[in-house]
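FAQ
Q: What does a multi-component entry look like?
A: The components come first, one per line:
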Amino acid sequence: MSRPLIAQLQRDPRHGQIAAVGMLALAGTIWFGFEMPWWRPVAALAGALATQWIASRMVRLPFDWRSPTITALSLTLLLRTQTWELAVLAAAIAISSKFLLRVGGRHIWNPAALAIVLVTGLRPDAWVSTGQWGVGGWIAVFAVGAGLLVTRRAGRAGVPFMFLAAWAMLSLARAAWLGDPWAVPLHQLGSGALLVFAFFMISDPMTQPWHRGARAAWIVAVAALGFWMQHSWLVTAGPLWGLALLAPMVPLLDRFFPAPRKIWVASRLPELNSLPDQKGATA
Amino acid sequence: MNPILKRLAIATSAIALLAAAPEALAFCGFFVAKGDAKLFNEASKVVMVRDGNRTVLTMVNDFQGDARDFAMVVPSPTVLQREQIHVTENAIVDHLDAYSAPRLVEYFDPDPCQSIVMMERMKTLGAASPIDSLADGRRDKALGVTVEAQYLVGEYDILILSATESDGLTTWLTENGYTIPDGAADVLGSYIKQGMKFFVAKVNLEAHAKQGGGVLRPLQIAFESPKFMLPIRLGMVNSKGSQDLLLYTLTRNGRVETANYRTVRMPTDAEVPVMTKDRFSDTYKALYGHSVGKQGGAAVMMEYAWDMGWCDPCAADPLSADELRELGVFWVNPANSGGNFAPQGGSNVFVTRLHARYDAQSFPEDLRLVETGDRENFQGRYILRHAFTGEMACEAGEQYRQSLPQRYEQEAQTLASLTGWNVNQIRSDMKEYGTDPGEAPQPRPWWKSIWKQ
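Then the predicted structure of the entire assembly, as tokens:
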């Protein structure tokens, strides 16, 4: 690989994101025994890229493969379906939501999170395997996540940690109230699925409030709602539901807590899952 | 509509109401003893039927001791009505156990000198229940309130208790002559705060005698709860070492897995030495222990996942519609009324057999379960290939004979890697069994197959 090409790849942090999520899926298949039929990544990638291509043509924007690739890999990592058709459908829902459900120049939902919640909520043959990561695999997830943060250079590196801290506080407080031994909350915090969510879902800057304080409050609210759903209803992927349900709050928070939006393009930080010409982001 | 979405639809309109919704949990109790009677809490078997929020639990009682010493405390989601509690027969659970047990299959090599390839003959062995468990040790310490209701169900006296604090429950149990294991009070306290009710099952000696005495029958409860989980923490205070749990789930859509622990498939379809036939129970115990050890102990092993409509090979026949209904599969129509088949062609009951070996260290939390949409069939299946031992008077026969040691060696290696046993010991056992990995078997003298002696 020539030097200019490496430099070019490094310039867009989404390449780092693609590498990280791809490595995670690969590591999961090789070391953690994830069941990964070949059609799952293929269907997700095909569905996401095709939808992006069609939608880009319809709104007359240049086609960008990076954002749908990240969404497809996230779906591959978290969503399990019995059939390939459903995997394609989930990818199509994810990408089209980016084009259709927009407020203030940007999309409302993290595409993968919305697709997972909708598909698993509506179909019995789609589910999230939160247990597959075990509690040892999290080290690898953390390592990759940390690598990702380096790639992303400062910016909103604090988001995953803020979410994890809120979740940890809730777990520990619940255990203290119930009189449970510490092993119980520690086991809950070791969940690989939780780390994947923190580093690869809620960290998406395009679906967070711009204002620093509002963002912090919103992250804590996502953690609290997800935690409540996970414990009172035993919803398998509580954080995902928390994120999907509170995403509509983001445009409201942006309205009541205005903040400068240029930061993303100025420092070349990732516009994860963002449209190629995020006019809203530069406004 | 999926239950989660349904609940969400309600949630948006009545958040306050949901906040007050009761936290409900399912079962898994612990035995309490009167005096210091010796109790052995062996592998617990639980059958869990689940569809939507409806749950039917069947708890097999492996109590071995004097019936008058038996008492079991079980957390339940709500105050149960008389009709929500039932007693069934051990035979049905035994049937489900046999149907889903890991199995050995035998193949017989054809005569290499015959030009026609003979059909393989296959035979299946129903596996004996392959569970070992460590004898438990118990410290007696007191636990216990308001008796909400009292019912006689089969041979059991059921007392429904409500408690507001674990101390109260502890005191009640103690005052009524029960002893409870160390550490149970803390777990009870945690469950009470989660809004749980409890019931105590005792043996009604008169009713038990009318039944003709004998083994206690499984207790069943039916309830509705959004939580799909199995409380195991109370079970752990019963036992010092690790305990085995066999969980059989019967669901409509697909297999069940654990949401907060890894669910791992048992190694399957391995060719093992023929001598395994005589020691399958020991072999499977070692195989299970080794497999779970490889996962660091904190994994639930999946031993079987299959459409209840059939099996291949069958360790036992699939359960009948009547048996399934008895276990609580409420969506199955009684026998002869038809209609128990899903549109895809399979039946509408899917069985999953999960086997956990748990202790407080590797399983600090209760098992949270999730029904998946995965209908792929899976079974723990181990293969025996009998070599052809007849007279072989041809070139191919000689080649076949010379190839056997290599195959035996491979089987020895497989068995060693599955069980963690010493490969040299396996080789020497195999040699004794007549399948020596070190040397090709001598041609069998022609006169050996004349008379059976």
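Q: Is there any commentary attached?
A: Sometimes. For this entry: The two ends of chain B are 68 Å apart (CA to CA).
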